[in-house]
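hey so i finaly got around to running the thing on Rod shape-determining protein RodA from Methylacidimicrobium cyclopophantes. pasting the sequence first so u can double check i didnt mess up the copy paste, my clipboard has been acting weird all day
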Amino acid sequence: MGMEENDRLGFLTKLARFDWSLLAVALALSAFGIVVVYSATYSSESQDFRNAAFSQTVWLLIGIAVFLLLSFIDYRLWVKWGWLFFLASLPALFLVLVVGQTVNGAKSWLRVGPISIEPADLTKVGFVLFGAWWLDRAKSRGIVFAAPLLLAMAIPTILVLKQPALGSAGVFLPLCFAILFVGGLKMRYVFLGVLGLVGVLAYAYLGVGKLGWDIPGLKPYQMNRIRTFFDPTLDPLGAGWTINQSLIAIGSGGMTGKGYLQGTQNMLGFLPKNIAYNDFIFSVVGEEWGFFGGAAVIVGECLLLLLCLRIAFGAREPAGRAVAVGIATILFTHIFVNVGMTIKVVPITGIPLPFISYGGTFLISCLAGLGLVESVWIHRKTKETDFREP
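ok and heres what it spat out for the 3d tokens, dont ask me to read them lol
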């Protein structure tokens, strides 16, 4: 009886510490996402597209359950086995290269009965846990600290590039850098990392944009996307079509939009149906809800990031800060690249917008990540339990 009472009190204490704002913002964005997914697919001739909003609702309910499960279990337990979660996610990345399902030119999906799973989304969360696990054990904050994380980052990055899914592969680098930074990497190495990033951007802008050089390892269609980013007139009916239609859709929405279910660029198929409900969902938002609708989505996403960072600052342990900052970095990278590619700020790479775009694996992985962040907040006042191996 006493044990049951203690367990009950423990649960009530955790419930009292629950940060409802984190869940509320995520649910508000997800609910709006379902509304926009329906708008992007209701006029499609394909039954699968017309069922997308219902499927997204089911995925959301599953994601909420995952969020709550991870929230109430001490995050240190997940960090303890972070290395295992990360390693367990890698075989799926190998498997997808062999028997994966090709969608929009990338072999990124594993088909399990009626369900399609994108392993890269789960690997991102696994890498956060691995980074927190290593941060909790590494004594040095120099090369010895950075090298294992850089090596671990390179493995999924290379595998995802082979799919090829440039957008997902590009998430691992800033994610690794964020964990190293919050983990206290010596500033001279941080400076070298920033310098390397500037070099990559300079190569892309000058070498690819101005001189027409190729980027090693990228497919021809990926290079075409990058080149048309710098000059959409190079192939207006091919590689430049989508970005041009996206700009027309967002621009034609004006300040208040054309109205719900009234987006002609989307409804008439000028914005391709197979990407309007996921990678280019922000274009649909801009056309139907206008500048105010798009701004509201960005404000909501930024609020979610700020809540994650608030929890990171409130964490008493480096591992907890790494988890919160790592999940925030995943979300930020997706938000920046997805919105940026629809308005021609970054090249088209094919990456979804958190909680708005269609995609079951991605939605669940985002809610799982937020569940880990919520756990950091709930357990921030508890004494550190020794979850480490003896």
